[in-house]
Amino acid sequence: MRKRVVITGMGAITPLGHSVESLYRSQLEGKSGVGTISHFNAARFPTKFAAQVKDYDVNRFVGDSYRWKNCGLNTQFAAGATQQALADAGLADNEKVDRNRIGIYLGCGEGVQDFHHLVTLIAQSYAPDKRKVETPIFERGGLREFHPQRELEQEMHTTTAHLGAYFNLGGPNYNCLTACAASSQAIGEAAELIRHGDADIMLSGGSHSMIHPFGVTGFNLLTALSTHNEAPEKASRPFDLNRDGFVLGEGAGMLVLEELEHAKRRGATIYAELTGYGSTADAFRVTDSHPDGRGAIACIQGAVKDSGLNPAQIGYVNAHGTSTQVNDRVESLAVKHVFGEAARTVAVSSTKSMLGHLIAAAGAVELIISIMAIRNGVLPPTINYETPDPECDLDYIPNQAREKRVDHVLSNSFGFGGQNISLIVSRFDN
Amino acid sequence: MASSSRRAVITGIGVLTPIGLDVNSFWQSLISGKSGIKPIQGFDTSGLPVRFAGEIVGFEAKRYLDKDARRGLKVMARTIQLAVACAQVALDDSKIDKQKLDPTRFGVEFGAGLIASELEELAEAARLCTNCQPGRVDLEKWGEQGLPNIQPLWMLKYLPNMLACHVSIIHNAQGPNNTITESEVASVQAMGEAYRILVRDQADFFLVGGADSRINPLSMTRQCLFQTLSRRGDDPTKACRPFDRQRDGFVVGEGAGVLALEELEHAKRRGARIYAEVVGFGAAFDRDLSGAGLARAIRAALNDAGIGPEDVDHVNANGFSSVTCDVWEARALQEVFGNCKEPVPVTALKSYIGNLGAGSGTTELAGSLAALEHGLVPPTLNYEEPDPACPISVLSGSARPVQKSHVLKVSFTDVGQCAALVCRKM
After folding, report:
1. For B131, which of A153, A406, B28, B177 is 20 to 30 Å away at the CA?
2. What is the mean pLDDT of residues B202-211?
3. Catalytic site residue A320?
4. How far apart are the first and last CA of chain B?
5. Are B67 and B124 part of one and the same domain?
6. What is the pLDDT of residue B1?
């Protein structure tokens, strides 16, 4: 028998509050976390709004303020959410559990580049007549103006190292970054590490912020973001006919995954069981998903097969639902393909309608919402759903939360480059 | 349900290194003691305190790719170009017929690091939006005039997952696809993960590896700021000297190492050449940078392989040439191998090529795979004066015959992520 993996702790720092409870409650109320960007002056960017985490101070969650001082928001959000998740699981400073059997596998985004210094240095060292940067000028300027510690904290292995050191977790320590699928992939592979016996417990999830000048520039250039500047709260409208792109969000979601017998022995509260994991690539284009949903279909099928369920048993799909034209059409197609008849009755919603797109952290936060839906029997809605799209013809739980008991939930995450991950969580049944 | 009888073997090797652009030339350089550390030629480094590295000179990605794949090169940073070219080398070496491969059972997994933007791509926008005030960009001008002066696909050229994504697109690999971003340990973690995925029956064939290129003005400047780099600029070929008493820091290198990993029966059916079997993997975090975590990772890998320390022919070390990291690596090796009757030799191949970042693990592993093929273990370059703080038996001077069938690859980061992989000659 393969080992069973359950969730025994959760934590979240999101645009809808600094706890799992406030996140879920806001979602049931249909609240939007989207507003005008205040992290920097975006007034003349094509997109001027995002879903920002409000009033966050890492020092309210963890000590050792010096450690976090020069870290990017990715690491700071991760620290707060990790503290919550470990405390929730009774592991915050539980030395009775072998800390070397607790590992970390995150899908955490990179730190933030020093936009202002980098751009001014490029301007200063650029020789337009030669169309080249005079590199010695750039180098001397960089050595003078970049902050060494902040440069180091941009590196992608620093977040999990800080968490391992601060929380004393000596097990396997991983980070993957597969665009918008990252934290879901991390959770899937973390569970596999537990099943193989590399750890008893894995802290898994993700954290990311791309609400900075380079991030918004990059996504605006790709024309991936909504430009509904006149009504930011209405901009994220997954599956609606008038959707025009995704809304950038930021934050972190962390889960404590644990081998079932280990959780039982220590009397941990079991929130749900991770029962299915599917992972595929579109192998199509870096910019677009496969138009027939080839990779998404195989991915959902893989997760369903892994769980041993049949699709009709899945009561709710927490969709990737980015509010882009292509994703929402292809994802609907894929759900219909895999669910067949059952697609008519399955409830589907995109919580990105309220949260925006947390990029690498999206999947973990959405899995937490999925688990809360199982535990509380209320499904979060898709807000801003006003005009049906004939190509998106599922039940998207429009605008109002819905009471419904569900035992199994599918959560999809699809990323740039054709990265597909599906996870299934189930009501824990001994 | 995964069948535990499935086994994973390495059937193809690709390397792009400062001392060779395929496994044979890489091997020849290793065995003849040739260093790839030289003054940097790619750009003017005169503003930097460190001006040498393990640089690949004369790399042209288009020589490795067919016409269709070449079209994508313009949206690939150098790191990504190294990855896709190296994947092609590994795939060619495996001699697999892609037409006979089930694309949904073909996975890709890479280790990748941060990729620096080419400065010129931002130059026009930068010029329009600054007024010679250091550290102050006019964001309104940037949004209005700067942004439209950047290439639309700019961001995609630098995303770390694009190594694995482009490889999957070029080769129609629709199976599991992951990108691990844990710096130097990333590609060994990728190997461990792909190995497990194959064994648990979710793929039959994988291209696994890592690539990194930090030899550009922005990355080198950043490395000089936060990394303790060797300052032996007067004698670059002597700069990278793992475990030697006179070592003084990291040496930056660039390159890629990609391996074709395949399920054993799948490989046998097509009569593939098998370099080695992957038989064990372990990972841990070394919180105190003491070596205790690294020792746990190594023991886990040996246990996973079902062998003891005395069964290991040689350790392919991480060997940063760092004053501090080499000490805790040596402590971990001493802890695991200290009681062996015969000392287990340690070789550190960064001494030839420098630190390839996320590309280092699989590239160095390729050295041990070649060693198994040729029956000779290449020595550590520049190991001249033993350091009492590193009491391990470093192989130096001349190559040593392979005596046992297992090799251990050790890999870690300077902040504590550790992994170890055991391969066995079939």
Report:
1. A153
2. 98
3. yes
4. 27
5. no
6. 37
Smallest Cβ distance to A161: which of B75, B141, B417? B417
Residue A101 sits in the same domain as residue A120: no
pLDDT single digits (tens) B140-198: 999 999 999 999 999 999 999 999 999 999 999 999 999 999 999 999 999 999 999 99
Q: What integer is the mean pLDDT of A359-366?
A: 98
Catalytic residue among A180, A228, A290, A392: A180
pLDDT of residue B203 exceeding 90: yes
Find the DSSP H helices in B227-359: 264-269, 292-305, 325-337, 350-353
Check CB contact under 8 Å for A44 and B47: no
Domain that holds residue B125: 119-149
Residue of A162, A212, A357, A408 with catalytic role: A357
Q: Residues B16, B79: contact at Cβ < 8 Å?
A: no
**Is there a domain that residue B193 lies in?**
yes
CATH number of A189's domain: 3.40.47.10
Nearest to A280 among B174, B189, B282 (CB): B174
Per-residue pLDDT at A65: 97
Q: Closest approach of chain A CAs to the CA of B119, in angstroms?
A: 7
Number of CB pairs < 8 Å for A and B?
307
| Whether residues B176 and B325 fall in one domain | no
- How close is the nearest chain A Cα to the Cα of B170, in Å? 8
- In angstroms, the separation between the Cα of residue B370 and the nearest Cα of chain A is 28
CA distance A135 to A122: 9
- Residue B157 has, within 13 A of its CA and on its CB side, a CA count of 20
Helix A325-339 vs helix A294-307: angle between axes, to the nearest 10 degrees? 40
Residues B236 and B108 in one domain: yes
Q: Is residue A93 domain-shared with residue A14, that is, in the same domain?
A: yes
- A262 and A138 inside one domain: no
Give per-residue burial for A177-197: e unless 16+ CB within 10 Å, then b: bbbbbbbbbbbbbbbbbbbbe
- If one counts the domains in chain B, the total is 3
A270 with A122, same domain? no
To the nearest whole number, what is the mean pLDDT of chain B? Answer: 97
The residues near B99 (Cβ < 8 Å, ≥ 6 apart) are none
| Same domain assignment for residues B308 and B224 | no
Q: Which amino acid, one-letter code, is at B392?
A: I
Partners of A250 in beta bridges? A209
Last residue of a domain, one of A137, A152, A167: A152
Does the predicted model carry a pTM greater than 0.90? yes
Q: Which residues of B touch A168 (CB under 8 A)?
A: 287
Position B132 scores a pLDDT of 62
Residues A124 and A210 grouped into a single domain: no
**Which residue from B minimizes the CA distance to A178?**
B161
Residues B35 and B109 both lie in one domain: yes
Same domain, B26 and B160: yes
Report CB contact under 8 Å: A171, B285. Answer: yes
Q: Do A126 and B123 touch (CB under 8 A)?
A: yes
Q: How many domains does the structure of chain A reveal? A: 2
Return the pLDDT at B3. 46
Question: Do B189 and B320 reside in the same domain of the chain?
Answer: no
CB pair distance less than 8 Å for B174 and A185: no
Domain range for A196: 5-112+153-426
Across B328-347, average pLDDT: 97
